[in-house]
Amino acid sequence: MDIHDLLNYTQQNLASWDEAAPLHAGINQHLLQEVSRADYSNLDPHLTDLMDEVDITGLSCVQICCNNGIDLISLKKKGAGNCLGIDGSPAFIKQAQELAELAGLKEISFVRHNIYELPAGYQGQFDVALITVGVLNWMPDLTRFMKVCASLLKPGGRLIMEEIHPILSMYVEGEPSHIGASYFDKTPYEDENGLDYFNATQYKAKKNFWFNHSLSEILMSALNAGLQLQHIEELAENIGNYCADLEQAENNPPLGFTAVWNKRD
Ligand SMILES: C[S@@+](CC[C@H](N)C(=O)[O-])C[C@H]1O[C@@H](n2cnc3c(N)ncnc32)[C@H](O)[C@@H]1O
């Protein structure tokens, strides 16, 4: 994709995310108490198992598109070494910094960058890069995105991902038996209905754009970025509250997947 279009899409998306931050902050009253617990974790059992298998104790970790930082805070609580969260929304970065401080954590920081405009200095610094639910669809150019992710890793470092399964792009939310779109549809999905996925507040939002990437595109973009697949699992459970009712459907599709890649030396 042309760099001008790429930055245009992502800047609009980031403005829309930043606008949603005060709505998400509403749940912080609850989080404020939760994050200070020594055993706090926002990771689901799939990610918890992967982190235990990798054994992140003392490892430097970066979370790409970290939102309010609660997944990275969870890694730090599990014993990770130096942690860095990157997100393009200044308001979410501020929330993440506040939550990390309340959690009483050191050696964790958060920086605001459009992931497609990451300055030099972060490359080759991390043992683990984490991507959790709801990131890939904001990326207009997956090839370029995966190259950025791989560039953050030391040789031998691992990219760990838990994401919504791309097959869900075919379904219509709230209508579990309705196939509404082609799996291969590449038209950017334009939305103004708001990004408050915590409280489902409806408001006329700043325009944002959603991009579909098939499973083979995800796997090939990682391969082309020098990442070797070590694990992949398609998940029958609802992991992102997107098309959650499909979990109970008789002919249920996968709702999510986890994957781990290793950066080739
Ligand atoms: C659905 S949230 C991810 C939530 C994540 N699973 C978590 O709970 O930590 C998506 C995040 O991606 C960020 N984002 C989207 N496009 C981005 C870009 N081009 N560069 C940096 N951050 C981006 C948004 O600001 C938002 O915080």
How would you sum up this structure in a few lines?
31% of the residues lie in helices and 23% in strands.
How many β strands by DSSP?
Answer: 11
Q: In the residues, how many domains can be counted?
A: 1
Major sheet characteristics: 7 strands, mixed
Helix residue percentage: 25-40%
> How much beta, percentage-wise?
15-25%
CATH topology: Rossmann fold
- The termini sit apart by 28 Å
Order of helices and strands: HHHEHEHEEHEEEEEHEE
Bound molecules: S-adenosylmethionine
Task: Tell me about this structure.
This protein has one domain: Rossmann fold. Strands 3-2-1-4-5-11-10 form a 7-stranded mixed beta sheet, sandwiched between helices. A two-stranded antiparallel ribbon has the order 6-7. The protein has a two-stranded antiparallel sheet with strand order 8-9. It contains 7 helices and 11 strands. The two termini are 28 Å apart. With 265 residues, the chain is of the alpha/beta class. Helix content is 31%, strand content 23%. The protein is globular and about 45 Å long. Residues 10, 13-14, 17, 65-67, 71, 87-89, 92, 114-116, 132-135, 138 line the site of S-adenosylmethionine.
Write the layout of secondary structure elements.
Elements: H1 3-24, H2 28-34, H3 45-54, E1 61-64, H4 70-77, E2 83-87, H5 90-102, E3 108-112, E4 126-131, H6 142-152, E5 153-164, E6 171-172, E7 175-179, E8 189-191, E9 208-210, H7 215-224, E10 227-235, E11 256-263
Helix pairs in contact: 1-5, 6-7
